[in-house]
Design brief:
Elements lengths: L4 H15 L7 H6 L1 H11 L3 H15 L4 E2 H8 L3 H5 L2 H9 L3 E4 L13 E4 L1 H8 L15 H16 L5 H13 L5 H7 L5 H15 L5 E2 H6 L5 H13 L3 H4 L3 E4 L8 E4 L1 H9 L5 H4 L5 E2 L13 H14 L1 H13 L6 E7 L5 H12 L3 E5 H4 L6 H19 L5 E5 L2 H4 L9 H18 L4 E6 L15 E5 L4 H11 L5 H10 L4 H18 L5 H16 L9
Parallel strand pairs: 8-11, 8-12, 9-10, 10-11
Antiparallel strand pairs: 1-3, 2-3, 4-6, 5-6, 7-9
């Protein structure tokens, strides 16, 4: 290759550009630049007309402009219909990969309107490096997953400052318009979003495929816009609900207590769209550690006094499918809240937690269990965020379930205890903020929530009307304790059970402990000493009961 070809090509391009100003695309103009056009057409292996437009787009691109048809019409000062005569040349150059083009959604971010044209970066590089025309092959993707990964990786280039925001949008627009054979891409393309909205939507889909249910939107925008002002403007539209993704119910804000905790996720509507195109989401299908299926719960018979049993039977009947949906519908027609909220309160060991499990088992409801002690965070503000997330996750999970799941707050003492006096203490302010969030959520709750607490005496009155059912679990009376002893240790005589019930003021949980110790004794030593062993275990339980207990007490 001649060493001065680069110079010849650039001189030809420059000459064509200079002489084309207000040329009106007249035939006499093309005659004047025939030599330049021949040199370019030989290099690009295209017609002279096509080489003319290559020169124009190259020159304008070098000036930092992405070119549309209107810009060319103004530069040539020609009749618009005259330029339309060359439409096939533009399409051919695009099909060969020499031109890149972006369609209508980009116009909101660039000054011109209509389709935007630019020269392939490989071709620019070849000319400037004095190399032959490179082989241009459009990138082809085996499937939509590869396409989504490329979209994400292009965003990473912008995040690493390897490309600008405008270059990101140009590449995204080109990739989308070139891959409409993928149904999901065509579906999103037809929504006619602006490029940043399209990119963010693809970004959220890709992150969801990787298992990220929610994403920090501020961090995502840092990888999109190189100007802080653009990030702020975009974020404001999201927060105000003006953003196209929010308005069209394709994405939703994950609510938090502080401005700094802003996360966004795909809506249920979007998740359904994705599933239509056979994309499997890790976040949606992965096993949740806090989910208890009815099939996982072992059947256990519970013994309560008559008043407790009557209230629990009422609750069990309500949670049966036919009764629950009919009741909720009637409540709505009478302008009552449809949410079923239950508080089980009483001393430790009286069967509150096991009652929730058995209710779920008998009524076939899945449990989403929340251990409140695990939610406490050492970082100020995280606890509030975690509480908000619980209700958001519950609503999303409820949409996946055949029947309404139970949101179970186990040991909820810290959540529903009396609020602290207003002070400068960060801890007090945080705990009060958490309680305010829960009060607000309970006000509009539409599912099934059951909470247990050992400290009803410290119950905040603001929560009283938020719980529809408040069932108190008493320490069992002698008659009830005798039944529990017989249930746990059926080999004991009725009189022995009555004697134990009279002598020891144990809760059901403590009796269960003694029965388990007796079972272990039999496994290790073969035979039980019977009533004598039981008495010994009772004395040990009393000693344990008198010891100082530290931390939370499990019901």
């Amino acid at each position: 290759m001649e060493k001065d070809l680069k110079i010849k090509l650039l001189e030809s391009i420059g000459s064509i550009f200079e002489q084309s100003k207000e040329c009106k695309l007249e035939s006499s103009y093309f005659e004047k630049i025939d030599n330049e056009l021949k040199l370019l057409s030989d290099y690009f292996n295209v017609s002279k007309n096509q080489s003319f437009f290559i020169a124009m787009i190259f020159a304008l691109n070098y000036m930092g402009k992405t070119v549309d048809i209107n810009a060319l019409i103004q530069y040539f000062d020609c009749n618009p219909m005259k330029l339309l005569e060359y439409s096939e040349d533009f399409e051919l150059l695009y099909s060969k990969g020499i031109f890149s083009k972006q369609k209508s959604s980009l116009k909101a971010w660039l000054t011109s309107t209509g389709e935007q044209f630019s020269i392939n970066e490989k071709i620019k590089g070849a000319i400037l490096q004095n190399k032959p025309l490179p082989l241009i092959e459009k990138e082809e993707f085996k499937d939509v997953v590869e396409f989504l990964e490329k979209i994400y990786n292009t965003g990473q280039q912008r995040d690493n400052d390897e490309i600008s925001t405008v270059e990101l949008f140009i590449q995204i627009e080109e990739m989308v318009s070139s891959n409409l054979h993928f149904p999901l891409v065509k579906k999103i393309y037809d929504l006619q979003f602006r490029v940043p909205d399209t990119y963010i939507y693809f970004y959220l889909i890709w992150k969801a495929l990787l298992g990220n249910e929610t994403n920090d939107i501020r961090r995502a925008l840092e990888g999109v816009f190189d100007k802080t002002s653009e990030r702020v403007k975009y974020l404001q539209k999201i927060l105000s609900g003006e953003n196209a993704l929010i308005k069209n119910n394709l994405a939703e804000i994950v609510e938090a207590s502080f401005f700094n905790d802003i996360e966004i996720k795909l809506s249920e509507y979007s998740l359904n769209i994705i599933s239509e195109y056979d994309l499997k989401l890790i976040a949606k299908n992965q096993k949740k550690d806090n989910i208890i299926q009815p099939s996982q719960i072992k059947v256990r018979k519970l013994v309560f006094n008559e008043d407790e049993m009557n209230q629990l039977v009422l609750l069990k009947n309500l949670l049966q499918d036919s009764n629950l949906y009919e009741t909720q519908n009637k409540l709505l027609t009478r302008n009552f809240s449809k949410g079923i909220t239950v508080l089980l309160h009483g001393q430790p060991g009286t069967g509150k937690t096991e009652t929730v499990l058995q209710l779920a088992k008998e009524t076939n409801h899945v449990i989403m269990k929340v251990e409140i002690s695990q939610l406490k965070s050492m970082w100020f503000g995280e606890s509030e965020k975690n509480i908000k997330r619980i209700f958001t996750d519950y609503k999303s999970y409820a949409k996946e379930c055949e029947r309404i799941p139970i949101l179970f707050f186990n040991e909820a003492d810290a959540l529903i205890s009396k609020r602290r006096e207003i002070s400068n203490s960060n801890t007090a302010q945080t705990e009060n903020a958490i309680q305010n969030i829960i009060l607000e959520e309970l006000e509009n709750f539409e599912g099934i929530l059951i909470a247990t607490t050992n400290l009803a005496n410290n119950f905040d009155t603001a929560f009283e009307r938020r719980f529809l059912f408040k069932i108190k679990f008493q320490l069992p009376d002698i008659s009830t304790k005798a039944k529990i002893w017989k249930l746990k240790l059926p080999n004991l005589s009725t009189s022995d059970c009555e004697d134990l019930a009279s002598r020891f003021n144990f809760s059901g949980g403590q009796i269960d402990n003694i029965a388990r110790k007796n079972e272990i004794h039999e496994i290790l030593y073969g035979l039980s000493d019977g009533y004598k062993s039981i008495l010994k275990f009772c004395q040990e339980e009393i000693l344990g009961n008198n010891r100082l207990q530290i931390g939370f007490t499990k019901s």
